[in-house]
Amino acid sequence: MGDTFELYCEVDGNPTPDIHWWYADYNRVDSFKQLWDGARKRRVSINTAYGAMGRLKLEDSGTYECRASNDPKRNDPRQNPAITWNRAQATISVLR
Question: Which residue numbers delimit the Ig-like domain (predicted)?
């Protein structure tokens, strides 16, 4: 506990893809929530393809996901997000 983790999401495309970071608690991967720079009392740091969290707590354990897309229809609610967004996941376990 109290450590930091860093995640990288390297993508390339034309036009340049949008990158978003998401998080889900253990056993709740169907309920991802978007992360943003400064979230969780300023412990989250996001700079496009780089995500980090410092001063880890037990409740930070879970699945972190990078989503990238340059599909012009990526934000259309009628489109299937699994088709328009590429995803990569990492599971983080914080131990006592």
Answer: 1-84
